[in-house]
Amino acid sequence: MVTAKLYAQTGEFKEDINLPESYFNVEVSEACMYLDIKAIRSNSRQGTSVTKTRSQVSGSTAKPWRQKGSGRARAGSNTSPIWVRGNKAHGPKMRDHIQKVNKKVKRKAFLSALTVKAKENQIVVFEDLSLKAPKTKELLEVVQTAGLEERNTLFLVAPGEDNLTLSARNIPWIRTMRVSDANTYELIRAGNVVMSKIALDALTGGAQ
User: Is 123 or 131 the better-scoring residue by pLDDT?
Assistant: First the structure.
């Protein structure tokens, strides 16, 4: 049985609750997590870096001076990479970094990441996180009371919890992400993964 700590909205510990086995206690596949994280990171790259080739830089194709007799080093063109204003040798080119991952692999990777976080006791659940107004101070007090001042804490936000996102924007070690946007990479790189009961239901589809 996999459990998580349940906190009141004030940040006070209440009890340990059971997490859905089908989401937080599956067979971990490091291979699937590797493939999914690799694809997520690769797909976030722009791929727009580019430099001019030798034929594109401004310059002459004429030989600057004769091959022999001048005492200077041989030169065939002033667009050479070793010349000032020459092209960049082996420079970057525009390319598409998109990598595709099978849906089943992505799903397995996501559930594996949830299982890893749960077994490391890094899944934290609150009864309610729907703040009445965007108040950074109020959220900070709740987090400090719960003892969750860990670097790179991830809050999964459910629909209707917009004030939570606004309240966390000015806390450098807290990141927020909609439940629907959660992925393997963000889960693994986070310290504690924090969510409300509403967000937990949204994540698991109400699974028991």
Answer: 123
Residues 30, 16 share a domain? yes
Global confidence as pTM: 0.84
Residues 13 and 86 in one domain: no
Q: Is-contact 35 155, C-beta < 8 A?
A: no
Can you give the residue range of the structural domain that contains 59? 47-96
pLDDT given at position 4: 95
Residue type, 94: M
The pLDDT tens digits for 65-91 are 999 999 999 999 999 999 999 999 999
- The verdict on 111 and 180 lying in the same domain is yes
**What DSSP character marks residue 156?**
E
Q: Do 31 and 112 form a contact (C-beta atoms < 8 A)?
A: no
Instruction: List the 174-178 sheet strands across, edge first.
Output: 13-18, 3-7, 123-126, 193-196, 153-157, 174-178
**Total tally of structural domains belonging to the chain:** 2
Helix, strand or coil for residue 168? helix
Last residue of a domain, one of 96, 112, 129: 96
pLDDT digits (tens, 9 = 90+) for 138-185: 999 999 999 887 778 999 999 989 999 999 999 999 999 999 999 999
